[in-house]
Here is the input.
Amino acid sequence: MIDCGDDGNNNSSLREKAHEEEFERMKREEFADSNGIASNSNARNGRDFVTPDSNGIGTMTELRQEILRDMTFLDGCSSVSTKNEARGNSDDYFFFNSALEWKPNVPLRVPMVYCDFTASHCPLNSIEDYIRQTCLPFYGNTHTNTSVTGGQSSAFVSEARQIIAEVCNAKITGKASQDVVLFAGNGTTAAVRLLIDCLGLKHFSDSNTERNGGNRRGRKPLIVLGPFEHHSNLLPWRELGGDKFVVETARLARDGSMVDMKDLERILISHRKNNPDCPFIIGSFSAASNVTGTVVDDIAITKLLHKHGALSFWDYATGASYLNVNINPTPSLYSDDKAADLAKDAVFFSGHKLLGGGGGTPGVLIVKKQLVSSLNPPGQACGGGTVFYVTKDRHRFLSDRIERYEGGTPNVVGIWRLGLVWRLKLSLKISAGKILSSEKKQNENGNGNGSAKNQQDLSSLLLEYDLMRARNIQERLLKISNLVLLDGKFSSSVAKLPIYSFLIRCGNRFLHYNYVCALLNDVFGIQSRGGCQCAGPYSQYLLGMNNTDKSNGDCTGGCGSNEAVENWLVHTKDELMRPGATRLSLPSMGTTPEQEDYVLEAIRWVATHGWKLLHVYRCNHRSGEWRHKSRQSSPLGTNDRRWLSHYRMKASAKEDADNNDGKTGTSSMEEGSLLANAMKNANKMLLLVIHDQSSISQTLKMVEEEESPSSLRWYVYPKDVARYIRDSLEEVPGTEDPSNIQGALRPLALDPNDIDTTELEEKIVDKEDLSSAVTTEKEKDNLHPAMLHFRDGEHSGEAALEEIIEGRDDGELSDYCQVFDPASDGWLTIDSYIEMYKYSCDDNEDGKVEIEDPICEEENAVESLTRAVSSIEIEPNEDFQFIPKNDQKKPKRDLSAWGKGQVQPLTTKVEGNENNGKDEAISRRKKSKHIKPPAKLMRLCTQAMIQWDMLEDGDRLLIGLSGGKDSMSLLHVLLEFQKKLPVRFEIEVCTIDPMTPSFDPSPLIPYVESLGLKYHYIRDDIGKISMNVCCRYFFLPLNLNNSSEWL
Here is the structure.
């Protein structure tokens, strides 16, 4: 039995009230101290949290440099830092080794310049020091108040809640209390889920509807969302849809820059008309776009929502770092607005996106107290700390609106950190406001003007400063001719934060956004992000992928490629095709003016020269990543990766210095000179790369990738531009023609009125280009949709049929799972649906799969070898069967076999024989069960072997065999080559046994010898050696005859 309320107040509310009273007393003492009144508060006995205005900072440049220094965390690094007395600061940077070289065998060392603030902001040294020195000594569980650790920890949590409420103008104390501040797990995503639990929407049922026999007509609630929404403020609401709710999205205005207020009002009026008994309407909007930084008019939208009786919810995940979060704004004296018309009903944001919050902070939900139900079950927050009393057969939840929805032990340290973050935010607004007000006053006096504007609220001056900076930066980016700023056509008249998403044109396509991110990192140390930024619908709109529905007033000019791209991603897993852009952000509190110039010049450099480095990078279709060819298997470098496993308790200062020596670096030169030096090194590196004729020649011989069809492929391959690099062209032909764009992306910022969609639509249905994965229009009528809605009890969602079937086979879904069939407009079981839409396979009747001839420009040089490879056939047998991808399933296993691997049966070891030649080795190999690699693997390995001239007559190969899938696959591919190709070469195998309990390669001994191969099995504690040897490169003693001749 469950009782959702208690019979009176509980101790937690009394404790909270006591903490609130102490907080108010502390604020009064702090105010008295600031006005020169003596105070003996014991709060002064601890370490004060130093704020910028106490350090004698007089200009915005100095303030920004102070914040940047606080972000570096270089105290523990081996570095030498000197003061620049003329500028009053020391500009230290963390350096790391790039994959690129600016001299032969000399890696490019680049300064780390963080510009991914929209994803997560950086922690601050001052905050972490304060937590370590003042707070952590008193850490304890907040579910007790009788110990000093529990009491002080609870007091810190309560104070953090009150600081956030104060800065956000939430009223949580006293008789005027009307808001609640709740902490929620992982950022905005958890905060939105908590809001849904507070409202009881998952358990929503209309009692009047049930009494009327289930007639829901005219009673469905409406949830209307904004067009800029992040997935965190989109998917949870969509998942509530179905039979109970109507979910709609407001359109953008005709210029694409703002929410269309007329369309929003049309949605509200239309729903009220069609559902006159609608119990409630919810409007949930982002305060700012995380893709473009566009600021939304929250006051106007809130007024409109309240006018039509709707609740107003706001996502400040992006905006909280810049905007003033005000849940209860004060009406202007010159308007007729009432406070209730402007007050937001709920606000939520992610703590890790604020300055100083990157060390780990929870999400925050501020909601009107009347909306937090004390009757509904607390949903996902149900657990320890949420109950009033529990017996063996019943329990009663707390009615306290805070502890009822904050179950379990909270992220105590994260909440403390978040309180300090918001205190810093308030302090910075005031400090920056004073500086900007003083500068404005000086300018006005210099011009002979009065100081009428000096009475302006100081807290708004920092926001004005950021908006002005954002506009100036945008104007500089728009001057780069081949850079396409996604909102470049729309943001001339709207407020914008310094967040920028862009593509770089290269010929009639674009440089892949992940490649641009890789270059910014490898050449300049700039940390950015590529993709749709978890805001798929808005990004696809800006990229021109949506269908144009002019009959519905949609004049965006989309090319309609969205469905084709989705089909391609579902069927091929080709992540390179996923649409997106490169994004970076340049907040004033986190960057300096010198860094701004450096980043903008770096973007200009990449836009001009980035394509010239394509031949030394490789792309991965399955992950969508681009990496330098030397780091395909180790993206962080073989020597530069840090390891948690290297942690040692109570490490000495000398050990810390040794661990950091050579791995980290700082510079004491002036910031401007440092960044200019990095730019010079980039130019030197470019000269070295464009004269790398070996890499250019290898790129020209690359085979065409079959995964991405030309009609959808929107990015350039290295081979596309290699000949222009060889010919020393300064620009890829066609780059200056914005009308000549191929592929699925047609960014509206190019020119939304000049996009010709006819050509693309014809290419999308081209059967030859899209292969069998994306079908023609005639075939689509006979196939199931790419994505299906499914439901299984309370679990529902959308997925491909193959994934639903796999989920059922793996036990994630039950046998009662149903999918929705659009043709019959009803729900069917999975088995019934499969019977209606059987998969077809275009395999050859004889089951043979031929390896196609690799495409190679130097075919005459390897003609005989290519003919030999082309004749290789993989015959069907018990070892290998060609199974179509859609038919692959995980076999069901007997419960008794769980945790047991299947081992290939081995033949008895033959003693007294030596491998005297290839023929004898092949004959002895027949004693083992030969494994034939899959046809696709053989084809790709054959292409690589021919392209790179990897095998020649007389080669002697030594294979390092660990027993993993990679080395075992290589072994059997080489055995197949040895059997089929005319090239004569020898194979021997070596395994290093590290002598650790976690890895025992000894079962390889009989297996390798059963293949007829000479085996070198060496036992050596290499783990111990690696911990003691300073040099990263060492040789293992191998007792091999003529070992110097081995490859």
In short: The chain is about 35% helix and 15% strand.
